[in-house]
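It is worth pausing here to work through a concrete case rather than discussing structure prediction in the abstract. The textbook approach is simple: state the sequence, then state the predicted structure, then interpret. We follow exactly that order.
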Amino acid sequence: MFLTISTTGTPERPATDLGFLLHKHPDKAQTYPTSHGTAHVLYPEASVERCTAALLLEVDPVALVRRGKGKGRGGAPDAALAQYVNDRPYAASSLLAVALSTVFKSALRGVCKALPERAAEPLPLRIEVPALPARGGAELVGSLFGPLGWTTVDVRPVALDEAFPAWGESRYVQLVLEGELRLADALRQLYVLLPVLDDAKHYWVAPDEVEKLLRAGEGWLADHPERQLITSRYLSRRWGLTREATDRLELVRLAEADDIDVEAIDNAVEDPAPEADDVQAAAAGAAETPEKTVSLAEQRRDAILAALRDAGAASVLDLGCGQGQLVQALLKDVRFTRVVGVDVSVRALTVAARRLKLERMSERQAERVTLMQSSLTYTDKRLKGHDAAVLSEVIEHLDLPRLPALEYAVFGTARPATVVVTTPNVEYNVRWETLPAGHVRHRDHRFEWTRAEFRAWADQVALRHGYAVRYVPVGPDDEEVGPPTQMAVFTVTETTKNAKNTKNAKNTKNAKNTKSAVNTTVKEEKAA
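Step two, the predicted structure:
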């Protein structure tokens, strides 16, 4: 099996620079051992105007049999006799992908000390793969390479036998890619997509394959329209690994959309030290009474649960669920028949799943709870249709310019009948003896509001989206500075409900009238 990589050049920027980028001298034919054969690198042509590098992989069929049998462990994907008679020596597959990563390791990383500027810029490339197994046909090949910046993706099916055209086409295609891309990007795409198209791997897929996929897919996989298919096939449909990779790729996509680092989104840490308000509340409680103190976090949860019970909610969204403390509390009350924990952080959701012991839950209990990854600043149709939503200590973790996006996603699109929002009261911070003046309670808080600021925001949200809002103090209500936590409970107004019902009724009536008119017209035409 082999592939060729060609580029063109000028006297100022000769095509033979390809040799520097691949770290392989154009005047030499070089050989490299692999676990299943021998890889050769040679240059059929090397001039100032045009240079072509060829990677030829000689597969040892005996090594294939010795190192594993069957799909994904060394043989072809087609059972029994396939370990002796198969296409592995001739068709591009994971064997060629591994040879690429071994022979062109530095080029794959975009490293070239001799010509760093050439490694960082797009080159006019032409890549040819004469025999590529494509489980999904030529259309799938086009859908995988088409969105990646290639100007030409030429896919030609290979006939089973040219002498007998009636036999039809084989599952193999000839692939030619042309366009201006960085060499490293082109090699990474091939490394991932060759085994994806073959839908088989010659080795066991271990957990470290997730890291390999994310490294090779950096810059293109997160936004690829076929991301789910690529991830699933690359990881040999191992569900756990596919889910992990998908979650991490979604974080990358969200970070790129907001032009921030992934760490800024996935900033949940496992069981961090209690926030200042919880520590201080416990200390204050201990000073007031010898009885067992109740932390401010517990008081918040109790206040939220009371508000949800008063609203008669059965299906509840915990938006920004973190490590699942509120989800856990909701599940203890049978009145809440459906609980959905939502967070953008994969690590937080992993901790929440462990806290809830999802793997050991009874089937009946597991049906009540769902944990899912989503960003609260983007609309998500999965958030619609619930009775209530909770934003507990969430809004202060967003930059102020992002609040309108969250407002629209929750109040404008998801539109639960009840929304409960809690946030720190910055006025109360003077009561924390260990909190320096001017500091916020948690290092990730982007702001903390006074009672007047919170009410001004909440009143405007309610006005814009047809909600009524009431305010509930959480924790000791100081006469001078108020409670440590402020809570707003939003409820859809009857006017909004009635307007929605009227609109639905009107739409239904119009649909019935339209249908009746169409039926009448059809009958008249038949009669004529």
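Step three, interpretation. The first helix runs from residue 17 to 22. The CA atoms of residues 468 and 491 lie 5 Å apart.
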